[in-house]
Amino acid sequence: MGNLEMKGNWNKIKGKLKEKYGELTDNDLRYVEGKEDQMLGDLQKKTGKTKKELSSEIKKIIDS
Hints:
Layout: H1 3-8, H2 10-20, H3 36-47, H4 51-63
């Protein structure tokens, strides 16, 4: 998943992740260019998912 692809679809991704994981806040899902790995790490802590699982979920959202 490319950063440009992720950035371009971020509002859609953010909405779907908030639906699935109600405990996520806007701050948890704040997209900062160049800090995608840090954000995924923070999401891992909140959701208990692996980086690979989260990346897969995000890819599915983008492709849908």
